[in-house]
Specification:
Elements (H helix, E strand, L loop, with lengths): L2 H29 L7 H17 L11 H21 L7 H33 L6 H20 L9 H28 L9
Length: 199
């Protein structure tokens, strides 16, 4: 690829990636019933409301999941991959393979949100233990569904809470053993050249 194509791929990946991340954070915050008066939450709501509010009129939630957010993320992820395919002069991808690959990438993104949230929360607990700030509070709410069952199995010992480390190891193993193989399989369904797409 020429430098202009590389720059285009970088720009598309960055812009789409950040906006998809905002929708993923909003979805996770809704699922964990986080504090939406938090300034960080309010910022995420503000930037995701324009496409989300009209779509919710036609797409209801299901089992506590905001399906409108899921549809928007899936559409954005598919559009990102399709544009990058054109920029890299690949043939048009198979729509089923593209949909599956985009969905698996979204699930992987969700895993990364939990993984990095746990990591950042652990760092903040070492640097400023007991100090309140909006980000710390939000990370605690995001990570609670993952850390709570781990803490039941592995309570703090001698004042040391090892649950974040074990939770991160567990999440990473799920990614390596399940999500990565599924992603390679779905990528292969798009077309043979997809093995090098996004690398």
């Amino acid at each position: 690829m020429n430098p202009f194509s590389n720059a285009g791929v970088f720009l598309i990946s960055t812009l789409f990636g950040l906006y998809i991340l905002a929708f993923m954070l909003r979805l996770i915050l809704q699922m964990v019933r986080a504090d939406f008066y938090n300034p960080v939450s309010r910022f995420i709501v503000k930037i995701t409301n324009p496409p989300l509010k009209p779509l919710r009129r036609f797409i209801p939630g299901f089992a506590g999941i905001d399906m409108a957010s899921v549809i928007i993320m899936l559409a954005l992820q598919m559009l990102e991959f399709f544009i990058i395919t054109l920029l890299r002069n690949f043939p048009a991808p198979d729509i089923l393979g593209l949909t599956l690959y985009a969905f698996i990438e979204l699930v992987t993104l969700g895993f990364y949100v939990f993984l990095f949230s746990i990591f950042i929360l652990a760092i903040l607990s070492w640097i400023n233990p007991g100090q309140y700030n909006p980000i710390n509070n939000l990370l605690s709410q995001i990570t609670a569904p993952v850390l709570r069952p781990v803490r039941r199995l592995l309570p703090p010992m001698s004042g040391m809470d090892l649950s974040p480390m074990f939770a991160m190891v567990g999440l990473w193993l799920i990614k390596l053993l399940l999500l990565d193989p599924l992603g390679h399989w779905a990528k292969g369904m798009m077309y043979p050249a997809a093995r090098v797409l996004m690398q």
